[in-house]
């Protein structure tokens, strides 16, 4: 709650020169600290492209993640399927 009260007390949440830029939580129906009018994909072209991991690496990570959740038989079946 302290963070929220700090956000309400700061005037720069309104953004300089853009009256509709960022709105305080008290001005909205949803519980956000702030709301931006900048579209979500606005900066997408400037982001670096991520590499696609090798399928083998993805399968190994999947098998490692599910190992604690499965019994031995289910684990063997899962490894055989992959």
TrEMBL record:
<keyword id="KW-0012">Acyltransferase</keyword>
<keyword id="KW-0808">Transferase</keyword>
<protein>
    <submittedName>
        <fullName>Carnitine O-palmitoyltransferase 2, mitochondrial-like</fullName>
    </submittedName>
</protein>
<dbReference type="InterPro" id="IPR042572">
    <property type="entry name" value="Carn_acyl_trans_N"/>
</dbReference>
<dbReference type="GO" id="GO:0016746">
    <property type="term" value="F:acyltransferase activity"/>
</dbReference>
